[in-house]
Give the backbone structure.
Amino acid sequence: MEERLAQAHMVAGTDARVLITGESGTGKELLAKAIHLASPRRNKPFVAINCGAMAENLLESELFGHEKGAFTGATSQHRGPFMAADGGSLMLDEIGDMPIRLQVKLLRVLQEGLIRPVGGTEALPVNVRVISATHRDLHQLLADGQFREDLYYRLNVVHIEMPALNRRREDIPLLVAHFLAQIAKESGARKIYAPEAVELLATADWPGNIRQLQNVVRQNVA
């Protein structure tokens, strides 16, 4: 993990787009936040959206925003994460699940620095640093025609791979300490793990990666 954090720190000082790949639960969003917090944009918003969590028509209006009355149910204007993250960083999680039609629209935003909300007639300037992430094999998606090559190269300026947790067991004690510190901050009560317990965690299999480890730590100290 230290190697990835060092790589993240190096790229944080630039505005280069970053593509983070790895299995689900390996800490891709944690790394994206670390890049943002180490960057000159740290005092501006960090916004994340999951591109695979909603239907195509909903994703379009959620991602690019919409005007009031743009479609049935659009009773008010929605700015969308590009505008919400203006000046800061936008994480496009599960970018590999984005439909081709929306990939075209995203590519145009990245090329022009302008966004046109659904139902809008005016293109609005946006200033965001885009960090994308996926658990899918983008090279295979490219070969299958499910992901645009031009968008891939726009997003993949710097590539960071997050290996599965069982391939970096040396990170587990550090992660446990981090989660305990989070819990203490939330609850106001200091929690500790015996060294023997941390050793057991470090030797266990973690098919759910960091997310599973975090859940186990929280359950054990609840």
